[in-house]
Amino acid sequence: VQLQASGGGLVQTGGSLRLSCVASRTIHSSVVMGWYCQAPGKERELVATLRSGRDANYGDSVSGRFTIFRDNAKNTVYLQMNSLKPEDTAVYYCYAKPDGVAYWGQGTLVTVSS
Questions:
Q1: Cα dist. 26→7, 14, 51 in Å?
Q2: What is the pLDDT of residues 6-50, one digit of tens each?
Q3: What are phi and psi of 103, to 5 degrees?
Q4: Gap between the Cα atoms of 24 and 2, Å rounded
Q5: Phi, psi of 84 (to 5 degrees)
């Protein structure tokens, strides 16, 4: 499975971005898909994951500001990012784990200016 992420960019504090991640093939809705981020000098950490279109799990720092959702017909998972903060600046990677194998997208850079 190849995952193609897009939607990153430069935004001011308080702004919004929507990230998209398209899978190269159909991934069953029961399979977890999601987003992780990695800031310079830090380890990769959970942003949000989604299973079966309704079981969402969010990192503590983004809960209430970010929303993850899927369009299964388009093999795409999205991350709506609102009320962005400078500490959200990172490379965001999409993730899927079909058949017990983890796949990662190439990452998309989000920069939030203060």
A1: 21, 34, 14
A2: 999 999 999 999 999 999 999 888 899 999 999 999 999 999 999
A3: -125, 145
A4: 5
A5: -65, 145
